[in-house]
């Protein structure tokens, strides 16, 4: 049975008291209201649009679309400030954790610290995690956590208190554990917070032999994996590099293949933005000509030196004033209107109607043939529709930023087995390589020192994590492009990468549900 997008969309519009108008595109119908849906509604719209192209039972689709569970709680911490009686002021904090899908356990997804976090955002992000994990064959359900604080306004001591108190709440609600739900870094959090989380968890559950796998993105000393910090940015680079390597795709956008000498603009210079820019420059030979941050953007048409900028940023807390570029204080989003580039890389922009108002109407046709969603959900359905209608290829977040969760998966595997990758076989591989070199030399083959090193060197944990990440990103892109081609053949219309990635993910999740025996695919009932 071909399912129409109408059901979900009609319900959504009804909830907003908007008359339903059948349309080939859910997002186009929504834009007629002049009002953007919420982030979670947008993810539902994307889901509906894609699921209409699948052959799954409607009730199963409705079921796998829903967020399975969401908890919210408040807790208090004693802050640094004193009241007039010399007591530490108590600060009340609201927090969430959503588990979108229990079709596979544990649930997996980062924790966001931001004053703008709310239930809608956490549900949307958890839902995206399910589809993301499915696209890259990471066997987890989706989850996401959020704490409503502004980490820039808190001391390290306060942040530690918040993180430990949040973890205690997760333990109390059974929302954390290596087989239940495994958090990781997201906006506003990093390895430091993950260390506090695992330390708190281990303190309460010291006899959990797999306990180190209760959170990923930890520092190495706390059971982390080499390469997790840069994994999301590296995955973005691998994904875009592969896309740029397809002659027929690049021909469509009128550019030569490869990343060399391509110009890109990056919005956000945090973990994801910085590492992506770094890899584009160092490995891809591309020029990062502009970078936007909260307080403005910097521009150098010959390319910005990313390691130098990072040093400057760490020392000054801002990219503004970086000597080797022009600093422009304005709406950072306006940089996306600039020169013609390969891609506008959105590495922080959160879901907001502002994108629709600021960028989408103004972006020139072909100014940037790609808009790459390194951030989660930066585009509203209307912005998405506008960019699509201009022929701009949107590289979807549920594929492009999956590098983080892929390497988190490797970290989790490492924690379950309690052994560093490569520890058992590295020396053995090296001695075998050495024997091969010796035999080649004995038979008179000339080998340079560099060649010898490449044959002999055994893989480190970092090498293995990176190679697993590269393989996953490449393989998943092949799957998405194959899905896109199949859908285009079936529907005889253009199908976006986002729709293709969602269809791929929905098929995988639905198939798990069928195989588990909870649903009969031939029946109309679940
Ligand atoms: N970290 C990860 O492994 C993963 C992250 N993601 C997604 O990537 C995105 C970025 O995450 P991440 O890099 O980890 O976050 P970070 O917190 O490390 O970095 C965000 C950066 O962007 C800056 N920023 C905030 N608001 C704006 C703005 N309006 N314009 C420009 N810059 C701004 C922040 O500045 P300031 O410090 O002043 O706030 C900070 O420097 C998020 O959508 C996240 O969900 C996706 C997959 C994995
Ligand atoms: O590393 C992880 O487990 C999840 C990262 C994340 O939150 C994301 O991909 O959005």
Automatic annotation (TrEMBL):
Per its record, the protein catalyses: L-glutamate + NAD(+) + H2O = 2-oxoglutarate + NH4(+) + NADH + H(+); L-glutamate + NADP(+) + H2O = 2-oxoglutarate + NH4(+) + NADPH + H(+)
Q: Which GO terms describe its biological process?
A: L-glutamate catabolic process
The keyword Iron is assigned to this record: no
Question: Which keywords accompany this UniProt record?
Answer: NAD, Nucleotide-binding, Oxidoreductase
Per its UniProt record, what SUPFAM superfamilies does this chain match?
Aminoacid dehydrogenase-like, N-terminal domain, NAD(P)-binding Rossmann-fold domains
Catalytic center residues? 144
Tell me which stretches of the chain form a coiled coil: none
Residues recorded as binding substrate, renumbered to this chain, are: 108, 132, 408
Cellular compartments per GO CC: mitochondrion
Q: Which PROSITE patterns is this protein grouped with?
A: GLFV_DEHYDROGENASE (PS00074)
Q: Where does NAD(+) bind?
A: 232, 271
Segments forming domain Glutamate/phenylalanine/leucine/valine/L-tryptophan dehydrogenase C-terminal: 225-517
Query: Tell me, what is one Gene Ontology molecular-function annotation carried by this entry?
Result: glutamate dehydrogenase (NAD+) activity
Gene3D superfamilies assigned? Leucine Dehydrogenase, chain A, domain 1, NAD(P)-binding Rossmann-like Domain
Site keyed Important for catalysis: positions: 186
**Family, per entry:** Belongs to the Glu/Leu/Phe/Val dehydrogenases family.
State the protein's name. Answer: Glutamate dehydrogenase
């Amino acid at each position: 049975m071909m399912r129409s997008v109408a059901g979900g969309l009609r319900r959504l519009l009804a909830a907003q008291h908007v008359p339903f108008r059948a349309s080939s595109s859910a997002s186009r119908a929504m834009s007629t209201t002049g009002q953007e849906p919420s982030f979670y509604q947008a993810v539902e719209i994307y889901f509906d649009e894609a699921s209409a192209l699948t052959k799954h039972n409607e009730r199963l689709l409705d079921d796998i679309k829903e967020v399975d569970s969401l908890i919210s709680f408040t807790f208090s911490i004693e802050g640094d400030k004193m009241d007039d009686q010399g007591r530490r002021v108590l600060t009340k904090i609201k927090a969430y954790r959503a588990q979108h899908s229990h079709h596979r356990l544990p649930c997996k997804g980062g924790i966001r610290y931001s004053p703008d976090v709310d239930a809608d955002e956490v549900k949307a992000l958890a839902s995206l995690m399910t589809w993301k994990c499915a696209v890259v064959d990471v066997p987890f359900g989706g989850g996401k956590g959020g704490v409503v604080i502004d980490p820039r306004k808190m001391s390290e001591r306060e942040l530690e208190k918040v993180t430990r108190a949040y973890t205690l709440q997760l333990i109390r609600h059974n929302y954390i554990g290596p087989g239940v739900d495994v958090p990781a870094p997201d906006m506003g959090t990093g390895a430091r917070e993950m260390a506090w989380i695992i330390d708190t968890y281990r303190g309460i559950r010291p006899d959990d032999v797999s306990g180190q796998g209760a959170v990923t993105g930890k520092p190495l000393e706390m059971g982390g994996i080499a390469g997790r910090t840069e994994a999301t940015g590296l995955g973005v680079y691998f994904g875009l590099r592969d896309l740029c390597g397809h002659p027929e795709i690049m021909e469509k956008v009128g550019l030569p293949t490869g990343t060399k000498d391509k110009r890109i603009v990056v919005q956000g210079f945090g973990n994801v933005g910085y590492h992506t820019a770094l890899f584009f420059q160092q490995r891809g030979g591309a020029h990062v000509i502009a970078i936007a941050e909260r307080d403005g953007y910097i521009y150098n048409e010959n390319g910005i030196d990313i390691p130098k900028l990072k040093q400057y940023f760490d020392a000054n807390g801002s990219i503004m004033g970086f000597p080797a570029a022009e600093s422009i204080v304005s709406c950072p989003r306006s940089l996306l209107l600039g020169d013609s580039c390969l891609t506008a890389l959105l590495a922080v922009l959160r879901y907001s109607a502002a994108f629709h108002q600021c960028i989408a109407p103004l972006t020139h046709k072909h100014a940037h043939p790609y808009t790459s969603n390194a951030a989660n959900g930066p585009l509203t359905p209307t912005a998405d529709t506008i960019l699509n209608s201009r022929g701009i290829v949107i590289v979807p977040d549920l594929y492009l930023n999956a590098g983080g969760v892929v390497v988190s998966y490797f970290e989790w595997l490492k924690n379950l087995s309690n052994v560093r990758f490569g520890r058992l076989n590295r020396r053995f591989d090296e001695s075998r390589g050495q024997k091969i070199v010796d035999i080649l030399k004995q038979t008179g083959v000339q080998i340079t020192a560099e060649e010898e090193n490449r044959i002999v060197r055994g893989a480190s944990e970092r090498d293995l994590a990176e190679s697993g990440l590269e393989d996953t990103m490449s393989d998943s892109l092949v799957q998405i492009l194959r899905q896109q081609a199949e859908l285009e053949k079936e529907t005889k219309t253009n199908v976006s990468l986002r729709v293709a990635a969602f269809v791929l993910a929905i098929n995988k999740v639905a198939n798990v549900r069928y195989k588990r025996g909870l649903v009969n695919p031939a029946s109309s009932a679940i």
